[in-house]
Every structure is written in structure tokens, then in C-alpha cells.
Design brief:
The structure is a single chain. The strands form three sheets. A three-stranded antiparallel sheet has the order 1-2-3, covered by helices on one side. Strands 4-5-8 form a three-stranded antiparallel sheet. Strands 6-7 form a two-stranded antiparallel ribbon. Strand 6 and strand 7 form a beta hairpin. The protein folds into four domains: about 50 residues; about 120 residues, DNA polymerase, domain 1 (Orthogonal Bundle); about 170 residues, hpI Integrase, Chain A, CATH 1.10.443; about 35 residues, no CATH class. It has 16 helices and eight strands. The protein has about 425 residues and is mostly helical. The chain is elongated, with a radius of gyration of 29 Å.
């Protein structure tokens, strides 16, 4: 009962509970909340209950309120790329289904129906109908949850109808693991050889994607001052998205150091020497950008995919995979080499090893039966207590007897 000031979700609030009627008011600071609480308490004591009257909705539809929410987060609370992603998810996924609904008509059941409809529609950007990845549904739901949470804060809704529905998104849709497409070591060698022979001007660019695991926009934004040939590292400081015509920080929001292989360092050194010679003949300074088109223009990702990437894959007789598959292949080859997960996470620029594990965990090599055999109690009595624990059947090869296998078959493959 009464009027209380409380900090909640990073803001100061005045909570009112008067004769069974409840209301919350958000304030700019603790001092402002205390002043408002004093005024509200004094007004309620003399019978002025207008503060408890329902506030009329400021907007009529979800689409209108979502637009206000996008404007409020702007580029100050989230990265520009993140805000653009939110806008795209709203335009493509949410607004066609619930945009015309009044904000107060969005119930918990309506949110469930919306998510189920998105899963049914699937990914419409491909010629074949594919289910939406579980992560896509979850991120779309998180955008909806954030908008409705703001509506609760503004007093437009009593509770968030999207809260806690993430667990309802089942993994029967496409998973992240299924979406991680990689090139085998042999396929990657064929792709890079084809590029070196027939598209030599693009070979250093493709080698950078394959040997450093850079995202496409990060490679496009690479400058010569980011490459340290003495230390054999490059610094990823920026990413370029020509579709949205902007330059931004890398996806993680911060730069990272990426080790250069000897082959990649030699290729970039030769590429720089060629560019310096071209600039000297033209009487111009060396361009800042490491990679550019033949005309010196910045690389556009859509043109690269269409005019270069797809053609190289066809010439190498490889099934089409996105350029991002080179980044996945980089990670898979490091895993195959037995590198620590923390090192792979740092090279890829993921925010945590757990995230790297979630994406590439299915690529980690599995052990064999000898691993569990080493857990057995060496005490002979243990075998007596459970004789079948180490019993060897005549029809089953002994896991530790490698001579029993065909020499062309790996023990680990079994």
C-alpha cells in the first residue's frame, strides 16, 4: 500500500498501490522519482486519484509503436548495424503478420500464433522452401519481446505477452549446425587453385577469407595499416556493408588480432608490392584499402558474389555455398588441428568460447571406446563385481587391438 520509489531494470520508478489500484511511473532519476512520489502521495491523501486513471494509448497499431521504438533506440543505445537488423526483421517477419493490430490486441496466444506462422512460412529468400532456423525465430521473438517490454514500461500494457515463449520454439526447424556449411580441405585447395589460375587478382582476397576467417565486410574494410608483416598479424577494426552504404565496427563491436599464416602473409606482401608498382606508374600514392576492384572502387558484396564467387565455384566444379562458408571452413580446420576452443574464439572474434562451441560443437572430434575403458577401476575385484564391464565378445574386435582393423580404416572412424 502507498507510494514507493524503487530502482528496476536500470531506471527509477514510482510504484503506486492505492485501494487495490496499481500503477507505475518511470522517472529520469532517483531525485525526480522521490519528488514525484511526494506529490503523488499528497494528491492521493486528499482524494485526487486522476494519476490512477488509465492513460489513453499514444498509438493505435503495433506498426506505429514499433516505429517509435526504433526511433528511440537510434544509434545511441545499439550499433547502427543492430538497429538496421531490427528494422529488417520487423519489416520482413513481424509487421506483415501483426503490424495492423492494435497494440492492446497482441495477446500471448497471438504471439504464439505469429511464431508458428513464421515457422510454417519458412525462409522465402530461397527457391526451395526451407524452414527458418531456430536462432532466426528466437531473435525475431526477442525483437518483439523488447518492443512489448517498452510498452509495459510506458503503461500501455499490463504485462509482456512475449515473455518466456522462447522455450516454445522447438529445434525441429533448421538448426545452426545444419546451416554451417564448410569446404573440405580438398575442396578448399581446389577453389583456391582455380582462383589463382583463372582469377589471380582475386586470389589474395579469397585466401584472406579462407586463412584468416574474416567476415566478408571485414575483409572489404581491411587497410594496409591494419597488416603487420613483422608480427604476422592483422587487426580487424572495421566492417563495410555496401548494401546499407555504411562503415561500422566489427560484428562483436570491438577489434581483434588475427594471426596470419605464412602463405597468407606472403600472398599479401606480393599483393602490396604489385599495388605499389601500379601506384608508382600512375603517379598516385598506395591506396589505403587492401582490396578493391580493378577500377579501384570498393568491393560490393553483391557484385562479388554474382560476378566472381559464383563463377569460381562453377569453374572449380563445386556446389554453391556462401562466401561465409570460408569462415566456417577456417574454424573447422582449426578444430581438426586440435587447437584450443579459446584460440579459435579469439581468431573468429566471438564474444565467448561458449558461443563458438554452440556453432561449431558438432565439428569437434569424438573419442573412441578406449577413452571409457581408461575409466575402469584397475582393481581386479572390480571386474569380478561386474564381469560384463570388460567382457570381450568373440564377434567384436578389441578396441585397443589396432592390428585387428584394416590398415586403411582409422580407429577413430569407428
Amino acid at each position: 500500500m502507498g507510494v514507493r520509489v524503487k530502482s528496476w531494470k536500470g531506471a527509477w520508478w514510482v510504484f503506486i498501490n492505492h485501494q487495490g489500484r496499481r500503477k507505475a511511473k518511470r522517472c529520469a532519476s532517483k531525485k525526480a522519482a522521490e519528488l514525484a512520489a511526494d506529490k503523488i502521495d499528497a494528491a492521493l491523501k486528499v482524494g485526487q486519484t486522476e494519476i490512477l486513471a488509465p492513460r489513453p494509448l499514444a498509438v493505435s497499431t503495433f506498426a506505429e509503436y514499433a516505429e517509435q521504438w526504433l526511433a528511440s533506440i537510434g544509434s545511441t543505445r545499439v550499433r547502427e548495424a543492430t538497429a538496421a537488423d531490427y528494422r529488417t526483421r520487423l519489416r520482413v517477419r513481424l509487421l506483415p503478420l501483426i503490424g495492423a493490430l492494435p497494440l492492446t490486441a497482441i495477446t500471448r496466444e497471438r504471439v504464439r500464433t505469429c511464431i508458428a506462422e513464421l515457422a510454417r512460412i519458412g525462409n522465402q529468400r530461397t527457391t526451395k522452401q526451407r524452414p527458418l532456423a531456430r536462432s532466426t525465430l528466437k531473435v525475431t521473438l526477442s525483437v518483439l519481446h523488447a518492443i512489448l517490454a517498452r510498452a509495459v514500461e510506458d503503461g500501455l500494457l499490463q504485462r509482456n505477452p512475449a515473455a518466456g515463449l522462447g522455450r516454445d520454439i522447438r529445434s525441429t526447424t533448421a538448426t545452426e549446425a545444419a546451416e554451417v556449411e564448410i569446404f573440405t580441405r580438398e575442396e578448399l585447395a581446389r577453389l583456391l587453385t582455380t582462383a589463382e589460375q583463372d582469377w589471380s587478382e582475386w586470389h589474395p582476397f579469397l585466401l584472406t577469407l579462407a586463412r584468416a576467417g574474416l567476415r566478408l565486410g571485414e575483409a572489404v574494410g581491411l587497410e594496409w595499416r591494419d597488416v603487420d608483416f613483422d608480427q604476422r598479424v592483422l587487426i580487424v577494426r572495421r566492417s563495410v556493408n555496401h548494401r546499407q552504404r555504411r562503415l561500422s565496427a566489427p560484428k562483436s563491436g570491438k577489434g581483434r588480432r588475427v594471426d596470419l599464416s605464412r602463405q597468407l602473409a606472403a600472398s599479401l606482401w606480393a599483393h602490396k608490392s604489385l599495388r605499389e608498382a601500379e601506384a608508382a606508374l600512375a603517379g598516385t600514392p598506395l591506396p589505403d584499402r587492401v582490396f578493391a576492384t580493378a577500377a579501384g572502387e570498393p568491393i560490393r558484396d553483391d557484385a562479388f558474389r554474382r560476378d566472381v564467387w559464383a563463377r569460381i565455384l562453377r569453374r572449380a566444379t563445386l556446389r554453391y555455398r556462401k562466401p561465409h562458408a570460408l569462415r566456417h571452413s577456417f574454424a573447422s580446420l582449426l578444430i581438426e588441428a586440435g587447437e584450443p576452443l579459446t584460440y579459435i574464439q579469439q581468431q573468429l572474434g566471438h564474444h565467448s568460447p561458449a558461443f563458438t562451441l554452440a556453432i561449431y560443437g558438432h565439428l569437434l572430434p569424438r573419442g573412441d571406446r578406449r577413452a571409457v575403458d581408461r575409466l575402469d577401476d584397475p582393481n581386479p575385484e572390480a571386474t569380478i563385481r561386474n564381469p560384463r564391464a570388460t567382457e570381450v565378445h568373440s564377434g567384436e574386435p578389441v578396441a585397443s587391438d589396432s592390428d585387428a582393423f584394416d590398415p586403411d580404416v582409422s580407429v577413430l572412424a569407428l
